[in-house]
Input
Amino acid sequence: LSLDMLRQKIPRLASDEPIFFDHPVDFGDPEIDGKSIAELIKGKPRFSPVEGLDKSVWEGKHCDGCHEWNEARLCEQSKNFAANDVSVLRLQHPLGTRFKVALAKWAQGGCK
Output
């Protein structure tokens, strides 16, 4: 696939408003809409963090059980998504692809 074709597969967020770490986001996904990045990184994954991982290992567990995300660390990771936009499609994120799209947009706005 060409880069242009891949870019067409990147989901759009429901809003073009700037994204802030601790403000609710309109992701365009009813399961995470209205929550902030700060809230979601303390929540529970919707999908397996690793393909094929048994549900008993991850389901119902909180993200911070395996990750020590904070605003600065997440900003650094988000800059990777912003620098290579199609990377959001590479692996299914436990909170969904729209979460990665929002992280990239947050990084592009200076991780505020």
